[in-house]
């Protein structure tokens, strides 16, 4: 496949330069503190985010470079079934907006460990803080940066070391200089750009095939089904129905990188509407990410590797002079994911480790300094890990990402669900699940991914079902520990934690989304 860099024209370079200039201006304007007498921080955008910024920023965090690679690859080989990982998410986004967000905002916390610490004490906060740091470093920064570097190398022919170094430094610049506010402002611009460029690629593909009717006729009928039989090896419906919620609850409801945008909301209503907005944006994953893969299957059915689907579409359909837009999108998805991850990393370390354990009396400026140092360290670690991952051969990016999350998620899902829904949950149960339960879950993951891989030991069920089994075992264990705890330490809600009912606007937005998703599932069942 010809490297895209060989086809760039003067117009392409001008497009990239214009994009970088606009990005720098937006980031600078968001980074310069206002003279209103308030201390600016890196971490929660001074509670200034509206619903559009929250939705675009959460989507920008979620839409990593793996989306462009993996979704097009799965669309090429299996059709639309993987869209369940985005469309099914509306259930858990609703849970975040209506159940979790009110508790987070009422508690007035900066991080998820701080939220749990207020309920179960310093030991719980410390355990969860270190677990969150490891999760961000591995599942967000390292894997996300590797996917971005892989895509840049695939399309532009730039070596992995150079790719990841330039990408992470560029993304880290916004987290370092302006924190969450700069990242959120930049992501609004970038996600609009992503929609425009990806939709252009899809439209060019549809025209090339001969129209939408021809697309439906030429692709296999099974490609248009969201629900695959239980015998399906790749995505059986029981695995998605039972296993996906475990990862989704941890990802959307408890993950610092995702929830941080909601914590930075102007008020609860804006936060709830912002979470609703990402539910609408996720509908676009079908035309933006999956459909290009299906179109590639129709137009170029003999690819040696489905992972080349996105690159094949780009290099064959984009006319000369517009390939710079592809480079722009690559930078956009990297800045969105890596920038948000770095900001979350700095927030958790600064607030839950440095301020809590090292310097409780730290000033705002000291916290900002430590946060920036953490961002620099995170950039270095991410580069080294991305290069280490690149040395492993034969990875299926999408399944690796999902399986890693599937083994990290069960302890988080268990403790947060019990904390919110069962008042009898004890500190002993929470700490046991976060420590011993996490070790067990990660240990099973190591066995599954490296020691006894399923391609050599077929006794394993689907990785999503393994994740669900771990979740069920940990949930039962936590309940039993709480019930038989002889000296239970149970959180008693404060009088200030009065449940705030969603506004009429919020209910209208969510009911509309639910109806729309129901129709989509009926159409593509």
UniProtKB/TrEMBL annotation:
Gene Ontology CC: plasma membrane
Cross-referenced PROSITE patterns: NA_SOLUT_SYMP_3
Pfam short name (any one): SSF
Molecular-function GO term, any one: D-glucose:sodium symporter activity
Keyword RNA-binding in record: no
Annotated keywords: Membrane, Transmembrane, Transmembrane helix
Membrane topology summary: Multi-pass membrane protein
Signal peptide residue numbers: none
Gene3D superfamilies: Sodium/glucose cotransporter (1.20.1730.10)
Transmembrane segments: 6-28, 49-75, 87-106, 127-150, 156-176, 188-215, 235-254, 275-300, 320-349, 370-389, 401-422, 429-451, 463-484, 505-524
Domain of life, per lineage: Bacteria
Subcellular location: Membrane
Keyword Magnesium: no
Family of the protein in this entry: Belongs to the sodium:solute symporter (SSF) (TC 2.A.21) family.
Name recorded for this polypeptide: Sodium/solute symporter
């Amino acid at each position: 496949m010809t490297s895209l860099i060989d086809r760039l024209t003067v117009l392409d370079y001008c497009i990239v330069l214009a994009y970088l200039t606009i990005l720098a201006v937006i980031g600078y304007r968001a980074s310069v503190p206002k003279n209103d007498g308030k201390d600016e921080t890196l971490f929660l955008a001074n509670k200034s985010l509206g619903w559009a910024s929250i939705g675009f920023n959460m989507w920008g965090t979620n839409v990593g470079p793996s989306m462009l690679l993996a979704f097009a690859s799965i669309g090429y080989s299996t059709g639309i079934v993987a869209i369940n990982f985005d469309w099914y998410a509306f259930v858990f986004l609703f849970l975040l907006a209506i159940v979790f967000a009110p508790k987070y905002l009422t508690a007035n916390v900066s991080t998820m460990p701080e939220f749990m610490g207020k309920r179960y004490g310093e030991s719980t906060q410390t355990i969860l803080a270190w677990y969150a740091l490891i999760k961000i470093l591995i599942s967000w920064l390292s894997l996300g940066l590797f996917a971005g570097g892989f895509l840049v190398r695939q399309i532009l022919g730039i070596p992995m070391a150079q790719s990841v170094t330039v990408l992470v430094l560029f993304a880290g610049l916004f987290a370092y200089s302006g924190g969450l506010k700069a990242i959120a402002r930049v992501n609004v611009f970038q996600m609009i750009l992503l929609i425009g460029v990806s939709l252009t690629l899809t439209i060019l593909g549809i025209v090339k095939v001969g129209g939408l009717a021809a697309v439906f006729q030429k692709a296999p009928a099974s490609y248009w089904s969201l629900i695959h039989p239980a015998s399906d090896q790749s995505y059986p419906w029981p695995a998605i129905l039972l296993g996906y919620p475990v990862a989704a609850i941890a990802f959307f409801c408890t993950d610092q990188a995702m929830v941080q945008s909601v914590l930075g909301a102007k008020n609860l209503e804006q936060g709830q509407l912002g979470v609703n907005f990402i539910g609408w944006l996720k509908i676009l994953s079908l035309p933006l990410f999956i459909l290009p893969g299906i179109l590639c299957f129709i137009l170029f059915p003999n690819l040696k590797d489905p992972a080349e689907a996105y690159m094949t579409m780009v290099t064959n359909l984009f006319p000369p002079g517009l390939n710079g837009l592809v480079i722009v999108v690559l930078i956009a998805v990297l800045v969105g994911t890596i920038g948000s991850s770095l900001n979350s990393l700095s927030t958790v370390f600064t607030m839950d480790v440095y301020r809590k354990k090292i310097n409780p009396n730290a000033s705002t400026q000291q916290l900002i300094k430590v946060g920036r140092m953490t961002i620099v360290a995170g950039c270095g670690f991410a580069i080294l890990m991305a290069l280490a991952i690149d040395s492993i051969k034969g990875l299926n990016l999408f399944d690796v990402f999902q399986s890693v999350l599937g083994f990290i998620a069960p302890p988080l899902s268990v403790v947060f669900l019990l904390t919110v829904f069962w008042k009898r949950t004890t500190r002993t149960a929470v700490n046991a699940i976060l420590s011993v339960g996490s070790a067990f879950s990660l240990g099973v993951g190591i066995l599954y991914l490296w020691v006894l891989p399923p391609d050599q030991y077929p006794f394993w069920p689907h990785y999503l079902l393994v994740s669900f089994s771990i979740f069920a075992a940990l949930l039962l264990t936590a309940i039993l520990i709480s019930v038989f705890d002889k000296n239970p330490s149970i959180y008693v809600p404060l009088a200030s934690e009065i449940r705030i009912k969603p506004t009429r606007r919020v209910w209208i937005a969510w009911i509309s989304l639910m109806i729309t998703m129901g129709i989509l599932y009926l159409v593509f069942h």
